[in-house]
Amino acid sequence: MLREKSEELLAEQTRRRQDEREMLRLEEQRECHQKLQVQESRLLNHYLRLKMKRLAREQEDELALDMSILEQLLTEERDEKQGEVMRKLRDEGRVQTEQEHQQGLVYQDQ
Q1: C-alpha distance from residue 59 to each of 45, 66, 70 (Å)
Q2: pLDDT value at position 104?
């Protein structure tokens, strides 16, 4: 009877040790899994920040190109308007010169 009790206690201790080892193994596995999740989360955040920076840089480049095109169009429009004004002034100058010339002929006839 004592021997049976002793064997039962020994078997119980062995089961407890096995359970403790299994618990430790599961705890280590959980911690390892948790560390991997944290690393993955950090890596994803890092890649997301890189992607956001790249997208922002692309938008800035696109905006700079759009501004450059707009400035070029405004310059061309301004130059065209200046050209029109200069042509009008030249044409008015010719008309005025012709009128003065004709008036000069009229005065000579008198």
Answers
A1: 21, 10, 16
A2: 64
CA distances from 51 to 40, 47, 55 (A): 16, 6, 6
List the structure tokens of 90.
């030249």
Q: Which residue has the tokens 């042509």?
A: 87
How far is the C-alpha of 78 from the C-alpha of 41, rounded, in Å?
Answer: 55
> How many domains are there within the chain?
1
| Helix, strand or coil, per DSSP, at residue 11 | helix
- Is pTM beyond 0.90? Reply is no
Residue 13, domain extent: 1-81
